[in-house]
């Protein structure tokens, strides 16, 4: 972490979990431990501070001890609303940090070089954003964001922009590539079948 700029980590848990039948996907247990606790354990050493983006009653995440930040854009506007909430929190609470990294809170195998590799990719490309990629597929929620772009993002969201790729393309985004085998580090748990597969992979 000493070699990377100060970066706030934000775990995105604002989804509706329809494919899991509702509830909070990050609180599903894999190997006896919640996915959220696994992600926190991996990301905490890579960041200055961690927050959790989630809507609804924040008390359900109280055991994490993390600040819970809700979307400021109403009606579940999607992952970009969670990104904006994280950027706003960083600007207000940690003005010494110019960067926020976001990770889906349902990705139990997040890599331990996640933040460093994203910074390397955006520096190499000379752009203000970076995202993860495996097997030729980008993971735009697992990404690095410059806090200075938050007002542009707010304007875009208020104008109805919901597609991450459309917004990031305007500013320039690099991809940090990880091998997708034998385990894709950005495998996420969306369904009960995914949870069973994560148990298998953990074993």
Structure at a glance:
This protein has 203 residues and is α/β, with parallel strands linked by helices. The chain is built from 6 helices and 9 strands, in the order E-E-E-H-E-E-H-E-H-E-E-H-H-E-H.
Question: What does this entry look like structurally?
Answer:
The longest helix is centred in the middle third of the chain and has 15 residues, at 79-93. Helix 2 runs antiparallel to helix 4. Mean pLDDT is 92; it is low at 16-21. This protein has 203 residues and is of the alpha/beta class. The chain contains six helices and nine strands, in the order E-E-E-H-E-E-H-E-H-E-E-H-H-E-H. It has a single domain (7-202), classed as Spore Coat Polysaccharide Biosynthesis Protein SpsA, Chain A. The strands form two sheets. Strands 5-4-1-6-8-7-9 form a seven-stranded mixed sheet, with helices on both faces.
Which SSEs are present, and which pair or pack?
Blueprint: E1 7-12, E2 29-30, E3 33-34, H1 35-43, E4 49-53, E5 68-69, H2 79-93, E6 99-104, H3 114-125, E7 129-134, E8 137-146, H4 150-158, H5 164-171, E9 173-177, H6 192-202
Parallel strand pairs: 1-4, 1-6, 4-5, 7-9
Antiparallel strand pairs: 2-3, 6-8, 7-8
Helix pairs in contact: 2-4
């Amino acid at each position: 972490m000493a070699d990377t700029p100060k970066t706030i980590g934000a775990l995105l848990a604002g989804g509706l979990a329809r494919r899991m039948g509702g509830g909070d996907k990050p609180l599903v247990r894999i190997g006896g431990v919640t996915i959220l606790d696994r992600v926190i354990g991996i990301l905490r050493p890579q960041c200055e501070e961690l927050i959790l983006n989630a809507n609804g009653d924040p008390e359900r995440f109280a055991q994490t001890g993390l600040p819970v930040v809700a979307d400021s854009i109403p009606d579940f506007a999607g992952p970009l609303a969670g990104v904006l909430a994280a950027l706003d929190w960083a600007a207000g609470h940690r003005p010494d940090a110019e960067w926020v990294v976001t990770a889906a809170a349902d990705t139990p195998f997040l890599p331990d070089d996640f933040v460093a590799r994203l910074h390397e990719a955006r520096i190499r490309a000379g752009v203000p954003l970076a995202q993860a990629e495996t097997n030729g597929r980008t993971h735009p929620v697992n990404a690095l964001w410059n806090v200075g772009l938050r007002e542009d993002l707010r304007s875009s969201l208020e104008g109805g922009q919901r597609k991450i790729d459309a917004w990031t393309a305007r500013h320039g985004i690099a991809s940090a590539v990880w091998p997708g085998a034998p385990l894709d580090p950005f495998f996420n748990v969306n369904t009960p079948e995914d949870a069973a597969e994560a148990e298998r992979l953990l074993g």
